[in-house]
Amino acid sequence: MFKPKELSSEYKEKILKYFPHAIRGDIVTREVNNILQKQNFTHENTLFGTSCCPDEINDFVTNFRTTWGNIFPLAGLGGIPFTGVTGFNAFSSHKPDNGNLFILFASHIGIDELGKLGNIIRRGMTKKTPTCGSAITAYNQFMDKEFRTSINQRDDEWDEQQKYMETIIEQSLPMITASPEPLLTLTEVVYDVIYKKILKIIPKDFDGNIALLGGIQINTSKDFFDYFLFKEFKIINPKNKEEINLQNDLQRAFNRRI
Ligand SMILES: [Zn+2]
Fold first, then answer.
1. pLDDT grade, residue 130 (50/70/90)?
2. How far is CA 182 from the centre of its chain?
3. Cα 206 to averaged position of ligand 1 atoms, centre (Å)
4. How far is the CA of 129 from the centre of ligand 1 (A)?
5. For residue 56, how far is its CA from the centre of ligand 1 (angstroms)?
6. Which residues contact 148 (CB under 8 A, 6 or more apart)?
7. In degrees, to the nearest 5, what angle opens at C-alpha 32 toward C-alphas 27 and 34?
8. Cα separation, 55 vs 77, whole angstroms
9. Domains of the chain
10. How far is the CA of 167 from the centre of ligand 1 (A)?
11. Alpha carbon of 53 to ligand 1 centroid (Å)
């Protein structure tokens, strides 16, 4: 089985420079699982779903699959839950009797050994590739004047998810370009859209507990541990209008390890 390597302290510093509160992905997995188990979320009574970019490298950032089993993927490019209301209804209709749902949602960004955002070297490759490819490609295209004039003439193409990503980026372009770290802001923008859409596809009268863990998946170059910056962790019950905020529990668990 593949076992990731520990990062050098220089590489770790580069990640923490951009994401001071990021935690190694496997530690996030362990502590989140501990907290959820205390809330009576078990392998038997919980169905796990994700709203993360389908990029294969995201599967190992946290690797919740080993605890929770099969995954219901709700997302398409960039992590946006393109399966929509119908996707959520299908997911929730597979929930164990009287059981729970757990959704991990995240945008993602790569960071290489030199501390450069938006690119990593993947296993078996020597060339760096953009990460998140969908969000960065959309952003780069808006920086290209020729693309700006041709963007509306692509209706014959079958690339609906990417077109939606372009719409998101276009709406936030002034904020992204004004940022000292445009790719960091781009990742935040995509995260905000994912979170908003996740809340939209959950019916207001949904009867049951849903654990929501949201954040940014930080992908590292090949064979190293990945990192995760958590931004939301709570259990909601839409019908009862109940909410248990678990952020402090998770932060305390991380603090014990530092
Ligand atoms: Zn991606």
1. very high
2. 18
3. 29
4. 11
5. 9
6. 142
7. 100
8. 8
9. 9-257 (3.40.1050)
10. 16
11. 5
pLDDT at 157 over 60: yes
**3-class state of residue 234 by DSSP:** strand
E strand segments, the chain: 23-24, 46-51, 71-73, 100-111, 119-121, 128-130, 210-220, 227-237, 242-245
> Does residue 178 surpass a pLDDT of 60?
yes
- Is residue 153 over pLDDT 60? no
Number of other residues whose CB lies within 10 A of the CB of residue 52: 25
Is a pLDDT exceeding 80 seen at residue 48? yes
Contact 177, 167 (CB under 8 A): no
Neighbours of 150 (CB within 10 A): 11
Average pLDDT over residues 202-219: 97
What distance in angstroms lies between residue 173's CA and the mean position of ligand 1's atoms? 18
* C-beta pairs of 68-72 under 8 Å, 24+ apart in sequence: 68/43, 68/102, 69/43, 72/47, 72/48
Q: Is the pLDDT of residue 114 over 90?
A: yes
Residue 1: what pLDDT? 62
